[in-house]
Amino acid sequence: MAYLQTEILGHTQKVCRLYKSALKHVFEYAPNRAAYRYAAVCVRQKFEENRHLTDALKVQTLIEDTKEELFQKQHSHPFRYATSPGGSAYGRELKSPDWVLDLWSPDEKAQYPEYFARREEMKKEYIVYWEKKFGNKAEELHHHH
Amino acid sequence: MTVDKYLYQKISFFLINFMLVIGFTGVFLSLSGVSIFIEWFLGGSSMNFSLIFLFDSISCFFLSVVLCISANVVWYSKSYMATDPNANRFILLVVGFITSMAILIISPNILSILLGWDGLGLISYGLVIYYPSSKSSSAGMITVLSNRVGDVCILLSIGWFMSVGDFNFSIWALLSNTDFSIWVSFLVMLAAMTKSAQIPFSAWLPAAMAAPTPVSALVHSSTLVTAGVYLLIRFSFILGESCSAFLMFISIMTMFMSGVVAIFEYDFKKIIALSTLSQLGMMMFAISLGLFEVAFFHLLTHALFKALLFLCAGILIHGVGNTQDIRSFGSLSLNFPLVTVCMNLANLSLCGVPFLAGFYSKDLIVELACQYSWGIFILLMMFVCLSLTVLYSVRLTYLSFVSAYGGGSLVSVCETDYSLLAPVVILSFTSLMSGPVLSWLSFSCPTLIFLPTFLKWGALFFVVSSVVIMVSLQRLVYFYMWGTVKKFSGLMWFLPWLTGQWLTLNTLKNADQFLKIYDQGWLEFYSSKGISMGANSMSLFSLKFQHNSLKIHFLVFLVWLFMCLIYIL
């Protein structure tokens, strides 16, 4: 295999994923909703025709051939929902990581004294919770020596 | 959250007032044939600095159109960017952009044009990377680097102007016998090509649609991209015959490429961006034919209806849930009746339908081109590009307003926000009136055009037939029609890849080789490391020679000092 196998898929999952890819493919090409519905019904019919097959080799070959056909005929502008990865409105909100607040200067922190005071308390509470759950690694290493 | 609740309204009101003052000044200057130079002079005997602003009919009309569009876009942004947390940064960037554009327009010499030019490039980068997504970041990169090429060309041409003696284009334009080197003509033309996104610098304009829609309406349709055309109009004296021929070829190719790609594009804003590209090609085509006043007229009318088109697009995109894919649109005329009317007005202007704004400017270019044409191929390509404009405009209208709705459920598909609608309505009226009014102001007497009947009716014939063809094609349901052409055009003829990834990847690979072999290799060996190693070995030799004795070292130093003194004395 040319790629790392990261999950083991059952046959049902493979077929369902292929069916969804095929529906997405016909949606991308369809000029209107009615054409998409007609094409979707045709896709479903093709899947139903091969539903009875029991020969594993035949089934796998069909799946691979369909994947290859979908790859060869892929649309130049795949449809993406706006807020999904690859969409036009994806990644517009920037959430800074929490540690950025530690880099604030004392003048800036002084503008929100209660917030930062509570934050320091929460940090200590988090350390206590962590050590209770996972133990204190630093103490264990120290004891080993 | 903005600091002042009425900040946007105040800025918009100021811009409207400024526009009215400049507009009336422009009318007065146009009718009286007067130009005003305002000069600030600083200096004494040996060093003199002066800052000059030029107010003539061209600069006043262009500035008033820019201010009109800016005022409407700022008012529109009040509602469009209301939920954005970085709205302060947005409005600062927009105001900075308008200032840079104003500096560019009222500058009479290439030095102060550079100030505005560089400001435009820098601020447009800031506006394109406004959203913190990777798409915006890469779009901003390609925008700023493409514009940077133009900046370098302007800098080089400044050096050339320094050698010939004067930076002011108004002085050079008065001289009848100007013989400029082809290099400075080419540099100025190249700068204009980068800003106006002509081939091969076209990749940045569709990519820049990652910016917010008000930015696209202001920056990428009517102001920044027209700066290149404006530069060529001001420096019209510099274009020789060979540069004009080259520009004609480039402009025709750009019009054709953008027209074909727009037909197979599925992003709403990118279709409009490609339409802008096509019209910029039309303006450059007019300039290459020597029709500078007509190109300027088309620049003004196009700016107004293209900004209107983008604002309407913003309302539709907002309405269908922020998606820009045209497959999610459809039947929006039922929910957005006013926006439909305004957008159709803009589209019909774009197509050159009689007595709308685009008809006055575009049809004039077409008819004058037929009269002064350089050959049958050029004429044919021009009419083909005209048809392509109509084809993609009709496709846009059909898929947005006529075909069945293809989006999701649970979206608020309605037009109720008057802060969004009012600028659209104002720009519609302005665009409607701009055609006849600007033609009366720009052309003091009507242009006499003598053409055979078939050429006279040619433009209208191509427009009508393109409408019929596209409406018929939309009803065809063959999925894989024109598969290869679709893929080739869908990837914009591989231009973004060629001028972006391919070019930078190869350049970076070569640069990596240069760095490792030359910069960190042989150059280090022979220059810095070599000198230090040589000095080190010489000092080791002298230490050995001196048997590590400090007395002998000082004696040697005294002998050397004595010999130096003998030499000097």
Q: Look at the helices and sheets of chain A and give the structural class.
A: mainly alpha
The tally of strands of chain B reads 2
Tell me, what's the shape of chain B?
Answer: globular
Q: Tell me how many strands of chain A there are.
A: 0
Order of helices and strands of chain A: HHHHHH
Low-pLDDT runs of 5+ residues of chain A are: none
Described by its quaternary structure, the protein is heterodimer
- Could you give the distance between the termini of chain A? 47 Å
Strand content of chain B: under 5%
The whole-angstrom Rg of chain B is: 29 Å
Membrane topology (chain B): Multi-pass membrane protein
Protein name (chain B): NADH-ubiquinone oxidoreductase chain 5
Pfam family, one (chain B): Proton_antipo_M
Transmembrane segments (chain B): 12-38, 50-75, 87-107, 113-131, 152-174, 180-205, 217-239, 245-264, 271-289, 295-317, 338-360, 372-394, 420-442, 454-476, 488-505, 550-568
Task: Describe what you observe in this structure.
The complex is a heterodimer of chains A (145) and B (569). Chain A has 6 helices and no strands. Chain A is mostly helical. In chain A, helix 1 (11-29) packs antiparallel against helix 2 (33-49). Among the domains of chain B are: 240-476, no CATH class; 534-568, no CATH class. Helix content of chain B is 73%, strand content 3%. Chain B contains 23 helices and 2 strands. The model of chain B has no long low-confidence stretch (mean pLDDT 90). The chains are: A mainly alpha (145), B mainly alpha (569). At the A-B interface, helix 1 and helix 2 of A face helix 5 and helix 20 of B.
